[in-house]
Amino acid sequence: MVNWSVLHAKRQRNVFSFSLRIISFIYGLAIELRLIAYKVGFLSIKSLPAYVVSIGNITTGGTGKTPFVAMLAQWAGKNGFSAAILSRGYKGKRSHNFLVVSDGKKVLASVDDAGDEPFLLAKKLSSIPVLISKKRYRIGYLALRKFSPDLLLLDDGYQHLSLSRDLNILLLDAKRQFGNGSLLPLGPLREPVEQIKRADLIIITKCTVEHSGDDLVDFLQKDFPKKPIFRSGHFPDQVLFPLVGESYPPGILSGKSVVAFAGLANPDDFLEMLKSLGAHVIHFKAFSDHHPFSKNDIVELASWKRRSDIDFLLTTEKDWVRIDGKIGVDLDIAILTIKIGFLSGPLAIPEQADERRCTDTFFDIIRQGIIRSNRTLSH
Questions:
Q1: Are residues 220 and 248 in the same domain?
Q2: Which of 100, 207, 236, 319 is the most exposed place for a label (fewest CB within 10 A)?
């Protein structure tokens, strides 16, 4: 006997899959036409009189752009270079125009206006100007006029072809890599894998023992043999209790019972890190990336705390900026912060023998680029 409900559901899935393939094909054509338009000069590419470094990816979210931008900005400040961050301000109400989120002295915008990632960068990097607009040339020019930075960091800039960059850094996730290899919306690719060729250097992010990135290195060395390749990992940094102003090393989580939540592109990464630190995760709630926390969400979070025998709620830096001010001061909540670290291993630069040398080699590329750029401008 034919099960008509199963047959109908299968047909619906086939129609949906076919529709995604059609949209993905059209999206791919649009990407190719856009790339051609820039190549032949139909669409113009503008330049700024500063050293511009772009950090981006070719997949949707989750490769670690925000902490990587923060690391570069912090390095610049510690090494005598002034920097400014140019972001598109995804999900920010003011990204259609332009907005100075931070002037390098204080935060001037709200998280709703700026978007969570630029706001987080502004809070985390107190001496670095952060500006947002979909037109990065415009805010880059504004940043140069107001702050005179040596280095402009183009956050999520790989597809922002209208602004020329001196160094194009591509981030690739060691675990998820290229997903199913299909373009949006059928897969995670924002553009074809072959566009890796535009990168000046490649960083494989979120490397772990289980996902070392070795297979990705092999692929890249075969198909893009002249690209310098680095590997990096995300490591726990601190456990912050923002409502009481206390901080502890991440080892404090060992043996603690927590209810955790995260609104990230890949929330499972956060959960895996908590477990690796020995935390007992009683309940985990995954929200959508950039989730705008509502009053009902806060009520639900509070109810988890009341009905569970836990030590505290635990979330990420990115999520905290979207709930700060909305949560009761009597609610125990902590933030796990992360840091980026370069790793040794099979790299395209064979003389790199250890982590310290990898780190020094990478930052020396940035340093020499800034110095050359300043010399060019001075003449």
A1: no
A2: 236
- In angstroms, the CA 326 to CA 328 distance is 7
Indicate if 252 and 372 belong to the same structural domain: no
Q: What is the pLDDT of residue 347?
A: 42
Name the region of 115 (left: φ>0; alpha: ψ -120 to 50; beta: rest).
Answer: left
Distance, in Å, from the CA atom of 89 to the CA atom of 158, rounded to the nearest integer, reads 15
Pick the closest to residue 160 from 183, 140, 184 (CA basis).
140
Q: How far apart are CA 139 and CA 28, in angstroms?
A: 29
* Residue 61 confidence (pLDDT): 79
Which comes out higher in pLDDT, residue 329 or 40?
40
Same domain, 359 and 275: no
Give the range of the structural domain holding residue 290, as residue numbers without chain letter.
235-339
pLDDT in tens, 310-344: 999 999 999 999 999 888 777 889 999 999 999 87
pLDDT computed for residue 179 by the predictor: 94
